[in-house]
Amino acid sequence: MKIIVAGGDGFCGWPTVLYLSNQGYEVSIVDSMVRRKWDDELHSNSLTPIASLEDRVKKWRELTGKDIKVYIGDLNHYDFLREVLRQTKPDAFVHFAEQRSAPYSMIDREHAVFTQVNNVVGTLNVLYGIKEMVPECHLIKLGTMGEYGTPNIDIEEGYIEIGHKGRKDVLPYPKQPGSMYHLSKVHDSHNIMFACKAWGIRATDLNQGVVYGLHTDETEMDPVLVNRLDYDAVFGTALNRFIIQSAIGHDMTVYGKGGQTRGFLNIKDTVRCIEIAAETAAKKGEFRVFNQFTEEFSVIELAQKVLKVAQQQGMEANVSHLENPRVELEEHYFHAENTKLKDLGLKPNLLTDKVIGEILQAVIDYKNRVIKENVLPKVTWK
Ligand code: NAD
Ligand code: USQ
Q1: Spatial CB neighbours of 245, under 8 Å, sequence gap ≥ 6
Q2: Measuring CA to CA, how many Å separate 326 from each of 121, 244, 261, 352?
Q3: Which domain covers residue 226, as residue numbers?
Q4: Alpha-carbon distance 100 to 84, whole Å?
Q5: I want to staple 6 with a disulfide (CB 3.0 to 4.6 A). Which of 97, 185, 215, 340 is the partner?
Q6: What is the pLDDT of residue 154?
Q7: Ligand 1 centroid, distance to 10 Cα (angstroms)
Q8: Ligand 2: residues whose CB is within 6 Å?
Q9: Nearest C-alpha neighbor of 150 from the set 379, 331, 23
Q10: What percent of the chain has pLDDT over 70?
């Protein structure tokens, strides 16, 4: 199967590229390399020293004999995308290539506008490109659990049956996203749903939870293949940040009360979910939605889990409650369905003390690369 991974230089994309290549897929990467530029803009860095994409792909070929094609360019440039689709004729298009940080999208008007244009226009171009060049291609789009927000009822997988004034219908689940970034994903979902209906495109929207971890079997094969890992307050995400904070002796930064509950999954499960989606393509005209996470935790629960493991390893870890820079509920009901991927064969890697301990050990090697000024949050929602 020929598969494009857009955003294939990023945290989720790179391990996915290697995993799919290892499984025998013919993989092409599309990436504008803009994520590396945002590090420069924010005076930040990946905790791990990441090789250039050219060196990454070269090392993979040396180790496995497998070729990965690379197309450097922006999904917002339609002519470029069209040409890539013409040359590669993919069976599936995995779309990771967006600005994915909620705090980055909330810096100011410019960053909000950039995020929504980059994400919404990029996805629109992908939809038009599929329609025009490869109408049978299956779009596998990364959405987010944050599209749903935190309603006081169970969250279904994409759709909910609603009874109203004696009539019933199955409708898209209500969306209450919590940042300009999360909103961009909602806009994408609506655009994709419409394109499926209007043009018969086949699409899977993967509403992914927060991803944690660093290594997969493939990225561990050689230091040149190491994955990027974000720890700063703009791109770093909850569990990874807490583990890295413990490794450098920084208090874990729980925002507010810490009752914010989210879905989480290991990066090792992200790559497998993409394979499952690719192997079971959506039907023509179908807009399929999967909730892609394996477990639910509150932020304070995560901090306490890390605290326990760090203390067992003799580290001086601590939990701090900071004033919450975001506008969000800090105590709320949260229960989301996540059976569809498991029904299709996902065997979750759950968050045990052993797993936390392994990530902690892996990050300790790089702890001197942390730029300490980037750890505390500076971007606020108000
Ligand atoms: P990332 O920032 O590490 O990687 C995104 C990649 O896309 C980068 O390499 C970047 O250069 C590229 N990119 C961005 N805009 C582009 C454009 N217009 N054209 C071409 N390339 C572009 O992000 P990630 O953590 O790997 O996330 C990947 C996807 O998964 C995103 O869509 C994100 O919203 C979604 N997601 C991530 C998480 C998470 O916890 N990391 C959770 C849920 C959903
Ligand atoms: N949080 C803390 N302390 C921190 C960092 C975060 O308490 O140091 C809290 C936040 O306030 C929030 C929760 O942890 O309540 C999650 O924040 P996050 O930064 O880990 O995740 P989020 O901003 O939601 O975004 C991340 C990815 C995004 C993806 C999303 C999945 O960056 O691309 O879409 O996770 S989800 O959260 O399910 O929408």
Answers
A1: 231, 251, 252, 253, 317, 375
A2: 26, 21, 14, 29
A3: 2-375
A4: 23
A5: 97
A6: 98
A7: 6
A8: 100-102, 144-146, 209-210, 237-238, 241, 253-255, 260, 262-263, 299, 326, 328
A9: 331
A10: 100
Query: How many domains does the structure of the chain reveal?
Result: 1
Cα-Cα-Cα-Cα dihedral sign, residues 111, 72, 133, 185:
negative
Residue 352: other Cβ atoms inside 10 A:
11
Alpha helix stretches (DSSP H) within 65-206: 78-88, 102-105, 109-116, 122-133, 180-199
Task: From the CA of 242, give the closest atom in ligand 2.
Answer: 8
CATH of the domain at 363: 3.40.50.720
Strand residue runs (E) in the chain: 2-6, 26-31, 69-72, 92-95, 138-144, 159-164, 167-172, 202-208, 210-212, 252-255, 261-266, 287-292, 295-298, 319-322
* Nearest residue by C-alpha to atom 38 in ligand 2: 209
pTM of the model: 0.99
- 185 as an active site residue: the answer is yes
Residue 281 belongs to some domain of the structure:
yes
Catalytic residue among 16, 144, 204, 219: 144
Q: Which helix (H) or strand (E) holds 317?
A: none
Residue 117 gets the label, from left (phi > 0), alpha (psi -120 to 50) or beta, of: alpha
In a domain, 382, yes or no: no
Stretches in the chain below the pLDDT threshold 50: none
pLDDT in tens, 125-179: 999 999 999 999 999 999 999 999 999 999 999 999 999 999 999 999 999 999 9
Structural domain contains residue 213: yes
Query: In the annotation, is 181 catalytic?
Result: yes
Q: Among 99, 234, 237, name the best residue to mutate to test ligand 2's pocket (greatest count of ligand atoms within 8 A of Cβ).
A: 237
